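Researcher: Structure prediction, please.
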Amino acid sequence: MDAGTVAMADVEAQLGASATGLVKESLEIRHAPSQVDVVDEEAASVLRKWCLSSYDIRTVILELAIKLDAMKHLAFLPKHQQRTTSLEVLKVYAPLSHAIGIGELSLELEDLSFQRLYPQAYAHIDQWLSSQEDDCKHVIAVSKEQLHHALTTEQSTQTASTSRPATRAGSAP
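Model: Predicted structure follows.
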């Protein structure tokens, strides 16, 4: 569609008017970041709010999925275009996905963007996190065992207290 290889009339004939509307809106959203300075946080915020208030949420989700796919295949683009796309995704699309409640997608978009924008820092952090993995797994296993023990002990205490016969007030047990 961007390259004009498929006509909107063909989209409408094959998918219907509703799908055609989503495709048109998706193309509008796709070009919106080029109209503002995404480095400017205020401009990026206004753009995100505009997308949320002006477009069908399905269109926004569609565009987020397209951006995720694009981020996974950036290696085929020149470095400057990789960085430009990554900055746009980091400033506009990742916060947009967070705003509509898709936090996992937001984190993935941020991670992919950070990896392209700051490769050395990303490699350093990734190496550090990998070195901490065994310690974290150990802490989680110990905490899990402690929690299991505490819950078992509490359950035993509750069972013992409910199995005792009730005494009336003023009478000796």
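Model: DSSP finds seven helices and no strands in the chain.
Researcher: Thanks, that helps.
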